[in-house]
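User: Sequence recovery, please. Input:
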């Protein structure tokens, strides 16, 4: 196997002839027929992934021309076998949308890009630095809601909270959180636009980069306790990064911190509102909100699937995969594998092994922000339910989570007393 330094160019994508594609359609009839639309729907997505896991756990997903992997064992194999399945690829969606950062590099390159951010995001550091900040920001967003009796929670609560916390943690002074929110909506939609038409992200990315560069310059002159500041002032040369590398990493850190955290705040709230008895238990014993967030991460994975590329001709579950082919290990399907989670379609905040979910990924690229994401969701959901009395879903505006690449309630209308 070549090392990353020997291979400075990303792996080329395989090109398939029409005969091979036709044979795959015959060999994998479910994957050959399944549509993105089905996978995106709430009920239809769960059903489609269940059927695939049972009958074609590695399938040729013809609409997107990628291998879709749905059993937990095989998903773990793909995201854990770093020699065979890599992220640094010519046609990587991730790289095309968000650039060259820790999640688009493998091996030593990846380690070097990730290392300076790790210490600030360890459990102890996160609890110490962010518990009060998150609580205060959550309370500040709930305060004006208390004057009303209805709201849409993505735009008034979950999204502004996720953006503000991530901005403060990184050290960005967001003059206009609306601008950042819009940029990340564009990135999220482009990461799921499998047609590969990416030209309209260029101005969005340029504006966001401009904002990040300005903040780096400010922090360089006035160091503070932020994550960017800790990278700029790193003591050892290996941990020091160029401004360009910092900007690219901040783009992906912000993406993780905004899209997925917004999703898990909404999905946990939606799951509890759909299970009033479990909500009552959590309100009586707030420690149970921790289990509720873990179980919601399992039940409605905010990141539906990740992206990997075969670094060599290989096999997965007995199926031959060619070098340069794309794979989608489905975290959503792995999290509902009955071999790992008995009665997987039931939401149960007492589930003993909910913490073993795969929603944060596995292996070298497992989520660097998982402690921050967990803490934000636990505090945000607990504050919301304890402060808005008799919170309930608006029956006239359904908000079930949807999406294949990213899954969450797109809007969540609620009422309270
Ligand atoms: C509940 C919230 C979150 C979920 C469900 C989530 C999910 C994930 C997943 C599944 C991966 C692995 C991707 C892959 O293997 O291809 C990942 C990686 C990553 N996440 Fe998160 N994430 C969350 C919160 C956060 C937060 C708060 C941050 C930033 C502080 C963040 C930053 C990142 C970064 C930078 C990576 C790439 C790590 C690497 O390549 O080494 N995430 N996340």
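Assistant: Recovered sequence (417 residues):
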């Amino acid at each position: 196997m070549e090392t990353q330094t020997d291979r400075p160019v990303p792996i080329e994508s395989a090109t398939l002839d029409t005969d091979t594609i036709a044979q795959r359609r015959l060999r994998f009839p479910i994957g050959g027929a399944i549509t993105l639309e089905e996978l995106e729907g709430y009920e239809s997505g769960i059903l489609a992934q269940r059927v695939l896991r049972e009958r074609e756990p590695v399938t040729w997903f013809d609409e997107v021309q990628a291998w879709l992997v749905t059993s937990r064992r095989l998903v773990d194999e793909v995201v854990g076998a770093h020699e065979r399945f890599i992220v640094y690829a010519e046609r990587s969606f991730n790289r095309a949308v968000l650039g060259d950062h820790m999640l688009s590099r493998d091996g030593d390159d990846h380690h070097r890009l990730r290392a300076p951010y790790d210490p600030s995001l360890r459990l102890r550091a996160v609890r110490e630095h962010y518990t009060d900040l998150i609580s205060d920001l959550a309370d500040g967003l709930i305060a004006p809601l208390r004057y009303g009796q209805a709201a849409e929670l993505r735009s008034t609560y979950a999204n502004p909270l996720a953006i503000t916390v991530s901005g403060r943690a990184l050290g960005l002074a967001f003059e206009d959180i609306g601008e950042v929110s819009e940029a990340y909506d564009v990135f999220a939609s482009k990461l799921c636009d499998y047609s590969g038409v990416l030209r309209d992200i260029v101005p969005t990315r340029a504006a966001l980069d401009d904002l990040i560069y300005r903040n780096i310059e400010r922090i360089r002159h006035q160091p503070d306790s932020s994550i960017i500041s800790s990278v700029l002032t790193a003591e050892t040369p290996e941990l020091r990064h160029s401004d360009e590398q910092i900007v690219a990493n901040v783009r992906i850190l912000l993406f993780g911190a905004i899209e997925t955290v917004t999703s898990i705040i909404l999905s946990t709230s939606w799951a509890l509102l759909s299970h009033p008895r479990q909500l009552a238990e959590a309100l009586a014993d707030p420690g149970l909100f921790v289990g509720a967030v873990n179980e919601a991460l399992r039940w409605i994975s905010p990141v539906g699937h990740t992206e990997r590329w075969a670094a060599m001709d290989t096999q997965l579950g007995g199926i031959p995969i060619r070098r340069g082919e794309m794979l989608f290990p489905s975290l959503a399907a792995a999290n509902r594998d009955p071999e790992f989670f008995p009665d997987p379609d039931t939401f149960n905040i007492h589930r003993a092994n909910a913490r073993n979910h795969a929603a944060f990924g596995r292996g070298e690229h497992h989520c660097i922000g998982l402690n921050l994401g967990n803490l934000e969701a636990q505090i945000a959901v607990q504050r919301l339910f304890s402060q808005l009395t008799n919170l309930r879903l608006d029956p006239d505006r359904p908000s079930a989570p949807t999406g294949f690449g990213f899954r969450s309630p797109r809007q969540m209308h609620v009422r309270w007393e």
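Residues 277 and 385 are 14 Å apart (CA to CA).
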